[in-house]
Amino acid sequence: MSIRCTLSALFILSALSCGAFFADRDSISVKQSLFNAVDKLSLTRLENKFGKTEEQLTRVMLKSLAKFRKSEERLIKKLKAKDSIAALQKSRSLTEQYDRLSSQIQSPEKFLSENLSGNYIAGLDSLKTLLDFRQSGLKELAAVPRLQAMDDLKKRISLLQVQMNTASTLKKFVVQQQTQWKEQLSRLGLTKELLHFKKQAYYYQQEINEYKQLLNDPDKLAQKALSIASTLPAYKAFMAQNSQLAQLFRMPGANPGAAGGVPGLQTQNQVQQQLQQQLSGAGANSFQQLQEQAGGVLNDMKSKLNEWGDGDGELPMPDFKPNQQKTKKLLKRLEFGINVQSQRSSNILPSTTDIGLQAGYKLNDKSVIGVGVAYKMGWGKNLSDIRITHEGVGLRSFADVKLKKSIWITGAFEYNYQQSIRSVEQLKDLTAWQKSAMLGVSKKYRIGNAGRQGNLQLLWDFLSYSQIPRTPAIKFRLGYQL
Questions:
Q1: Are residues 335 and 232 in the same domain?
Q2: Is residue 112 domain-resident?
Q3: pLDDT digit of tens for each residue in the chain (482 aa)?
């Protein structure tokens, strides 16, 4: 019997040892996969990318700062007419504040050693911590160039974090100024004068939010490395001790005695013990007391989050209709499309089909302007004589203005060459080009779940009656957004 027990114990110990061995081996394998993924990152490309983003962000802040300053100088002039002493005090205070902000924007390297508590960017923090983790496994001499490249990238990320923190500081300043001006001007009956400043502040906030979204969307290779890292206990423990987020909250796996936790924030065991104490011999008000205590802890956490994250002062909902396209990059305001228009004939086949390509620019949410080109393709006489021929080309310009829901008013001006093309030399004869001026309606609709957009256009060409040869006055086009 004792022999059986001994054998059983040996078997269990062997199984546990094997399990630990394989778990250890899996952990080593995952860690190596993570290192391999990080090593595939183009550090120079990432550094250039973040450097370019930092330069763009700096330009945005300096441009916005100049606009804010100019707007406030206008407001001071309005205030001076009502209260010259208050205007003088305001002017002196703003000069000092704007000069300090301008210096901070232009010299981010001076603030690298400061605690970046104003704006937390998860994407940058994760990437920087990932590089720190990889460097801990790159101690060999042969890796010195790689270590230096990682240090350069981390410094670039830190500079970008400083600028995002400054952007948050500027936003907080603008919120504060808007509140002060509203109180001051309302007493003098000048609240309408604040509208321009409100618009600038709103669009600045939207632009900074777009940068934050961009920085939270990692590079594809970096995303793959972070995905592997999320499965590795060693990385989680490293993240809990060394990330910027660890300075805000004591993360799972962190040393309970480590600095950076929220003062008064309890551990899970402490919460369970407190619940047991509170509810053992529960009285009528025990649950209410527990709620009040929990509410106090949550308020402390909320205050800390407001200090660190997006709670740095959000502008109120604007009392004007904002242009959602104003802060978007050029490429995001462009829309490309294709449309077709066929001219009927007495046969089954259409005689010609116009195929147009166009590029539109969104001025705002309700108006688009653009240009395009068209190619007129001939089909031949009938089904027994199908021949593709070149029957003309066109240059187009258009404007769409939203009327209601999916109905838009469309205006267009075009130059069309309506003759068969046998050589490019023909197109140089400008007298052969015909003008078209059109007005009509467009119906825009969604296609499938992909969010693509189609449109139907019905246009009247009021110059067609004077054209030789005369073209149809009514044009129907079917379009699709690329």
A1: no
A2: yes
A3: 444 444 444 444 444 444 443 344 446 676 777 777 777 778 888 888 889 999 999 999 999 999 999 999 999 998 888 888 888 888 888 999 999 999 999 998 888 877 655 567 888 888 888 888 888 766 554 556 777 888 888 899 889 989 999 998 999 999 899 888 888 888 888 878 888 888 898 999 888 888 888 887 766 667 777 777 777 777 778 877 877 777 665 555 555 444 444 444 455 555 556 656 655 555 555 555 656 666 665 665 555 444 444 444 555 666 677 888 888 888 889 999 999 998 766 555 568 889 999 999 999 989 999 999 999 998 877 666 778 888 889 999 999 999 998 999 999 999 999 888 888 888 888 888 999 999 999 999 988 776 788 999 999 999 988 887 788 899 999 998 88
Q: pTM above 0.85?
A: no
Task: Decide if 324 is inside a domain.
Answer: no
Residue 279 lies in a domain: no
Do 41 and 138 belong together in one domain? yes
Q: Among the three residues 248, 272, 287, which one is the final residue of a domain in this structure?
A: 248
On whether the CB atoms of residues 281 and 162 are closer than 8 A, the answer is no
